[in-house]
Structures are given as structure tokens and as C-alpha cells.
Amino acid sequence: MRVHNFGAGPCTLPVEVLEEVRDEFLDFGGSGMSLVEMSHRSPEYDAVHTRALELVRRVGGIPEGHEILFVQGGATLQFGMVPLNLLAGGRRAGYVLSGSWAKKAYDDGAAVGEVYEAWSGAESGFTRMPDPGELDLLPDTRYLHVTSNETIDGVRMVSWPDEAPLVADMSSDFFTRRVDWDRFDLVYGGVQKNLAPAGMAVVIGRRDVLEGAVRALPRYLDYGFHAGSRSLGNTPPMFPIHVMGKVLERIEEQGGLEALEARTAAKAAAVYSAIDTSDGYYRNPVEPSVRSHVNVVFRLPDPEAEARFLEQAAARDLVGLKGHRSVGGIRASLYAALEQESVDVLVEFMEEFRASA
Ligand code: PMP
User: Fold this and answer.
1) Is the CB of 151 under 6 A from ligand 1?
2) Whole-structure pTM over 0.85, yes or no?
3) Which of 213, 234, 237, 235 is nearest to 224 (CA)?
4) Helices (H) and strands (E) in the chain, counts
5) Residue with the nearest Cα to atom 9 of ligand 1?
6) 275-284 in b/e burial notation, b at 16+ Cβ within 10 A?
7) Is the separation of the CB atoms in 193 and 172 below 8 Å?
8) 209-258, pLDDT tens digit by residue?
9) CB 176 near ligand 1, within 6 Å
């Protein structure tokens, strides 16, 4: 039995991929051992690694001038690695405080470098994104940090500012939308939402940026260490890398990012439509033009109704719908592997629940 998993991450992965991984788990490609028992220097693993790198590049449409890194520590480690590698010598970084995750990135930046708020959505309760011309940029800004999608607040950045070189945390909508990579010095995202089991971040950055650390760092924290070794400088997270390759292959077979972007928008539109046609029973606080396509947040009239909603949803195998503990409410995460069918079941349930309220 498989449930409809709306979890915010880790989350649902394509069942076909899970089945394939299960079937090969004990004996990988006739080697007589599991992939997770194998040397990361073996030819078998090297093929897995190379294929994953190629797929990230091809499916993501990543230009040659950008390097792809696989780094453990999730997106959280990147909150610190970015300023450690990019900030020094009087240069500072502006942060767009668009929600809970941007705030964390900013706090970690402040621990190791000079950072400042270029814009904050706190006053609006993180329900909007900056309009063009609204950013306050200081001189000597090395980069502007943005969060493409706020997983907790359900708000997404639709168009990218062009006032400074950009660094983006794309953890939650990574590889569900096409990206104009040339606009970015560096992009990072944890893989455990759209691409793979937890265990690493993918970092995509301009080669000169990744190879030009501005200070001496312990090797793992230095992008140059990963860039110079194809992310094989130490033992990489082999299993997530392998699964990611399979997930990307499937995304490619299903029409690539353009098709996935359209499927994702359609899933989101169905849930927002259930909210907007509920006569105010369900409420989404986000400015419509920047509503997230992957994390739809909504409230019911009171916390008791929300508790009943979650309970009755679970009875229909609709799980993972509880909002983040810091904000409460309901959150439906619609990542790449969540099927439209699951969304249809959710929407039907939302309508029935409201009718019986
Ligand atoms: N940034 C965003 C936008 C996220 O959604 C998350 C995780 N939910 C993180 C960063 C932190 O990621 P990790 O758990 O991989 O460190």
C-alpha cells in the first residue's frame, strides 16, 4: 500500500525508481554486492557518478561554464559555505529575507561574514516577494542571496532581481522549473524534495567562483576541493547520487523540465482553485502572483477544524499535510514525484470536508 504523501521533505519519490533500487539492492549490476557496500573508487560506482553528473547537466540545461558539485550537509551547510567561500576583503552580501529559510541563511551568513538585509517580507508575514526596484543594495555587494521558494511560508520568487550577482537557495523547487543559470553565480539545494533521498546538496556555480575561494578553509568547506575532484575528493553520498540519477532519467523521459514545470503548475492550480472557491473556508495568505507551486499553505477557520481535517485526511491515506511546526495550519507539498492523481484525491477530500463542516 502506498499513501498519498504530501510531506515537505523528505517526501515521495517515483515508485518505479524505488522498485528498481529495491531489485538491484543486494546485487548491483552483477557485482555480487550492494551499491552501498562498494568502493567509491570502483569502476561500477564511477559510472553511476558520471551518469548522475551528466543527467544533472542535461536535464537542468546547465551551461559549460557552470560546475556541478555534490556536497553533504544539506542546504544548511551551504548557508555557511557560501559566505565562507565568497565573502572576504571588505565585500558583503545582501539577503532577501523572504521567509523562514532565508532568515536561516542570513543568520549563518552573519556568523561568518558581513551580510545585510536587502529586503524583508517580515512585515507582510512573508506573503510577498520584492517588486523590481524595491531592494536596498549597498556598495561592494559581492552577491545577493535569494530563496527561490520558501518551503514553510509557501511563497516563490517568480522573476530574478538583476541588481547584483545572485546566489540562490533553490531547495524546494530545485529541478521543477527551468532556470537561466547565467543569471546566477551559485545555486544550491538539498535533494530530498524533488530528486533523491536526503544526504546532500547539489551546488551549481560558475567555475571561476567555485575555484576561487577567498580564504584558506578546511578542505570539505572549500568549493575548490569538490570542483577539483568531480566531488570525489572524499567518500561521496553514493546512494542519494545513484537514486538522483534514476529520478532525473525519469524526469527526462517524461519531457524534461519544461513538462515538469507545467505538471507542477497544474497540480498547484488545482489546490489553489479548491481554496479560492471555498467561500473563505480555506484561506491562503500569499499574494496570488507569488504563490508557491510546490508548497501550498492554507488555514481552516480554527485549529480544531484543522486537527479534524488532518485526521480525516489520514483516514483517506492523505498524509504529510500538517503545516510546519513554526506556523501551523495545513501545507500540501507537490514535489516532482507527487502524481496528479494524489492531488485529485486531496481536492475531492477538501470539497467533501468543507461540505460536511
Ligand atoms: N532551504 C530551504 C528552502 C528548505 O526548504 C530547507 C529544508 N526544508 C533547507 C534550506 C534546509 O535543508 P537541509 O535540511 O537539506 O539542510
Assistant:
1) yes
2) yes
3) 213
4) 10, 13
5) 75
6) beebeebbeb
7) yes
8) 998 777 899 999 999 999 999 999 999 999 999 999 999 999 999 999 99
9) no
Q: Which three cell numbers stand for residue 171?
A: 531547495
Nearest to 91 by CA among 168, 146, 164, 187: 164
Is 169 among the catalytic positions?
A: yes
340: CA distance to ligand 1 center in Å? 24
What backbone torsions phi and psi does residue 298 show, to the nearest 5 degrees? -155, 160
Does 333 contact ligand 1 (Cβ within 6 A)?
Answer: no
Q: Which atom of ligand 1 is nearest to the CA of 192?
A: 15
Whole-angstrom Cα Rg for the chain: 21
Mark whether 101 is an active-site residue: yes
The per-residue pLDDT for range 45-58, each reduced to its tens digit, is 999 999 999 999 99
Any ligand 1 atom below 6 A from CB of 171: yes
Q: Is the pLDDT of residue 1 over 90?
A: no
Question: Average pLDDT for residues 105-130, to the nearest whole number?
Answer: 97
Closest Cα to residue 79, out of 101, 56, 97? Answer: 101
101 in contact with ligand 1, CB cutoff 6 A: yes
Backbone CA torsion sign across 144, 150, 153, 157: positive
CA dist 357 to 109, 304, 314, Å? 46, 12, 17
Question: Which three-class secondary structure state does DSSP give residue 231?
Answer: coil
- Residue 66 is given by DSSP the state E
Q: Are 200 and 234 in contact (CB under 8 A)?
A: no
Q: How far is the CA of 280 from the centre of ligand 1 (A)?
A: 31
Residue 256 grid cell: 524534461
- For residue 110, give the 3-state DSSP assignment: helix
Question: Does the annotation mark 140 as catalytic?
Answer: no
* The pLDDT value given to residue 90: 82
Give the dihedral of Cα atoms 177, 178, 181, 187; nearest 10 deg. Answer: 10
* d(C-alpha 344, C-alpha 309), whole Å: 16
CB of 72 within 6 A of ligand 1: the answer is no
151 alpha carbon, distance to own chain's centre? 8
- Counting every residue written for the chain, the total comes to 357
Closest protein CA for atom 15 of ligand 1: 74
